[in-house]
Amino acid sequence: MLNRVILIGRLTADPELRYTNTGTPVASFTLAVDRMRTDSHGNRQTDFINIVVWRKQAENVSQYLQKGRLAAVDGRLQIRSYDNREGQKVRVAEVIADSVRFLDRGDNNGNGGTRNNTPQNTSNANSNDHRLSYEDDPFADDDMPEISDDDLPF
């Protein structure tokens, strides 16, 4: 059996970092991912997918990613359910990230705004905390237009 999800999209808001009762960091954010096909009016539909990131990777995501940033997520789909305050069962679909890759620099100046946005691979498989410099960024010359907060539909 296989449960693997790979997504590339933009964050709809800054990641939210929390800690469990045992002190384990967990971050969550929503990724806006455009569909490949357009509708009958020529507009692209967008899916808003909830992402959950754990441990050191959660702290890195919280520190280096922000609303509008382009990111790639590799993980697994998880469906969980809970009872809300009205006693109704609610099902939630979310992607539990195994790795998050930062795909852009953050702003037109390359400094990512108010946060320190050094691009890096936060894969769990990379235990030596290797950090990429901008010179190592394979997407540095990709000719993608910068998107400001005003361009985002949310």
Automatic annotation (TrEMBL):
Residue span of motif Important for interaction with partner proteins: 149-154
* Ranges annotated as spanning the membrane: none
A GO biological process of this protein is: DNA replication
UniProt lists compositionally biased (Acidic residues) regions at 135-154
Keyword annotations of the record: DNA damage, DNA recombination, DNA repair, DNA replication, DNA-binding, Plasmid
Report the PANTHER family cross-referenced here.
SINGLE-STRANDED DNA-BINDING PROTEIN
Which proteins does it associate with, and in what oligomeric form? Homotetramer.
Report the protein name in the record.
Single-stranded DNA-binding protein
High-level lineage: Bacteria, Bacillati, Bacillota, Bacilli, Bacillales
